[in-house]
Amino acid sequence: MNMALLSLLQQLIIVLAAAVMFSSFVLLGQVRLVAAIHAFAWQGFLVAMVTALVAASDGHGHLYFSAILTLGLKALLIPWMLHRQVRRLELDRHRESLSHPALVIMAALGLVIFSYWLVLPLVQAEMQFTRNIVAVSLAVVLIGLLMMVVRTQAVAQVLGFMSMENGLFLAAVSATAGMPLVVELGVAFDVLVAMVLFGVFFFQIRESIDSLDVDRMNRLTERTGDEP
Amino acid sequence: MAAWGFALIQSLLYLALAPLLVGWVHKVKARLQNRRGAPIWQPYRDLYKLFAKEARMAHTASLLFRAAPYIVFVATWLAAAAIPLLSTDLPTAAMADVIVIAGLLGLARFFLALAGMDVVTAFGGMGASREMFVSALAEPAMLMAVFSLAMTAHSTNLASVVEYQLLGEPFLRPSYLFALAALVLVAIAETGRIPVDNPSTHLELTMIHEAMILEYSGRHLALMEWAAQLKLLLYAALLVNVFLPWGIAQSIRPDMLGMAFVLLVVKLALLGVALAVSETLLAKMRLFRVPAFLNLALLLALLGLMSHVILEVGA
Hints:
A: 7 helices
């Protein structure tokens, strides 16, 4: 594809898509919870910007609604809710130690290559420029999944889940000019409900195992030695 | 023949401008810290003073210790000569591409580290091992970043990369942005600026570059210092001319060269201000956090390569 054939808006969309991919890596590598929430908010903001720019360049009016919905929900409301819960659970200074940070990042790079390979036939079939972004969005989904696998902290896992949703949304916007508005509203509502449920679960997990480290759920005995 | 003459003049310009950039950065930094600071030509005076002084040697020093400053200086200078400063019409750039430049810098670093270990002081050895530790991580990131430019321009020759940039209207390329970010991080690490190394202290626990040249004096020290200043200018020229090449002369004509010189000075001055601000705002990081810093550079460079393949070429 020749960059010279693209308009300035389309070039901007490509740059922003690359920035979404980078924010996914930032989210994966971030050890501080509050910073990770901020990275997630930036990702939501970037996805909203991509949506608005796709709307502007292709002339799909309803995508503006999706952009505003994404901005409100992913960039503002959900990060705010997570932030509040983290503060309430007194985790704002929590640092999670990843065991092999460089290895995890390399695995994520592998996932990017894999998703590009997966999308290659699709890209070859259609010359529309947004098809390229499908590879990026698939990579964002897979990196979110990887984040849920490698992180043991419940809040970080929720962030991974939410960034997966960002990736799916990006794919929908770039490949098919967005889902119907009804579906999008439904998904947004689902995400919001999921967020509320996660919030309840955070407190439940904390109540029962006194930590949000979900690895501890694998242990069968709660106490050792000091049983009555 | 005129081209070769110009190449010679340009490489002499590198020598002349290198202390000025350092002086400028020091001046801006001093201003930011509410000090008046030394005048910006202070590095020239320092070099002049050091050249006039007698060079003392430790008795344990071998021939290598004596030869290293010359090798380091010449290798850095040769590397600088291949990077377009004012004009892209350079015979040296046609001879030496980016891989050769990285090789020359590697040669300079190798002899610098050897010289550090030659006089068997604890500091020299420590500095050499740290330098190698940092550069082993920085060099792949630098090559990867430059490769993502080379993939776009279909050439590893820097002059062609710059000319490709100037061709047609400017495009927003994600790979360029990633490569720029990666190269900035690598340049900070390689030139020993603040988050990685502090060039203005001689604190035992933190110094890297200073530890290696601790035993040098007189003209040897002057050459080592000058080589370090040259390296800073080399990376600065690489950043401003590859990523913001507008204004660089594409042929050797006096009016174009004059314009290029003015714009170059402005760009380098702005870069110097940015460096001084970042050095004032940031604190030096622990040595064992440097791998994370350079891993970020490598990640950015790899993302640059990938976004070139995925987003820009896209089959």
